[in-house]
Amino acid sequence: MSHTQVRPPDLDASVRKVTSQTLREKKRTGQPISALTACDYPTAKIIDEVGIDLILVGDSLAMTVLGHETTLSLTVQEMLHHARAVRRGVHRAFLVVDMPYGSYHTSIADALRNALTFVKEGGAEAVKIEGGSRRAALVEELTAAEIPVVGHIGLTPQSVLRMGGYRVQGRTLIEIEELLADAAALEGAGAVALVLEGVPRELAQQITSTVQIPTIGIGAGPECDGQILVLHDAVQLTFDAPAKFVRCFADAGALLRDGIERYRDAVTRREFPADAESYHLPRQIAASLQAADMEVFTAS
Ligand code: KIV
């Protein structure tokens, strides 16, 4: 094993590992699938311990943690760096890594090489790619190479230049037909799940009842088999107004700001660190220094 490989942590026998089969079973039995994005070790560990089923190292991290305007500039190496950190925190959840823009657009060979890198070095259990029918051949190739694929259709942020902005998809009859065909093509090609983003609730419901694989919605209404949110949106660690479909479940931004302000104030008032937060010389050493009249070392 090369030193760059990341192995999933050994599983506690009491923890039932979530796999693509678990997700399928959840769909079959009508149990909702919970999913969130993560991009670092601490958030991944918390999300996993809470029992979220699917963790996505989403390329939205380009915007939420790297401060870019879009997801387009994110590289394979940057994604790998985050995937490895997340991998170290995840024991139970199904771990999906987003293929960044450009990592699967040049050729099937390039896409295979990059996807294999995410599996072998980033510990991905599946990769996610954006796009519908036009990705079917690629999904087949990745699946044939034993790499599970999650499809992503509807509002696909990597298409922002072509779409001319971020807008809800599937609102015309033509778009509805296209998205139904996209879902069927991806399922036929072997995708293990489908992210439906930014589509009307009614269309997401129709797709969900048509395909056998689980649908995970974001801005796609409550009838999807599961829901995903970007963690930073869900806990309000963002700086822009949230989209209509986002619900903020905590105000982590305010909590962090408050803690950081209190730290700043404690330092500037010399209240931090207190004596209890300081180390001291061992008594004996302090005593001998005192005996040698080195008052500066006299223990208080
Ligand atoms: O990158 C991401 O966070 C995503 C989710 C929006 C599904 O693709």
In short:
The protein is of the alpha/beta class and 300 residues long. It contains 12 helices and 8 strands. The structure holds 3-methyl-2-oxobutanoic acid.
What is the N-to-C succession of helices and strands?
A: HEHEHHEHEHEHHEHEEHHH
Termini distance?
Answer: 54 Å
* Oligomeric state of the chains present here: single chain
Number of helices: 12
Q: Strand-residue fraction?
A: 5-15%
- Indicate the radius of gyration in whole angstroms: 24 Å
Number of strands: 8
Largest sheet: 8 strands, parallel, barrel
Q: What portion of residues is helical?
A: 40-55%
Characterise the protein shown here.
By secondary structure, the protein is α/β, with parallel strands linked by helices. 40% of the residues lie in helices and 13% in strands. It has 12 helices and 8 strands. It has helices spanning 20-29, 41-50, 61-64, 76-89, 108-120, 136-144, 160-163, 173-189, 201-210, 231-234, 252-268, 283-291; strands spanning 33-37, 54-57, 94-98, 126-130, 149-154, 193-197, 215-218, 226-229. An 8-stranded parallel beta barrel has the order 1-2-3-4-5-6-7-8, surrounded by 7 helices. Strand 4, helix 6 and strand 5 form a beta-alpha-beta unit. The longest helix has 17 residues, at 173-189. It is elongated, with a radius of gyration of 24 Å. It binds 3-methyl-2-oxobutanoic acid (KIV). 3-methyl-2-oxobutanoic acid binds next to strand 6.
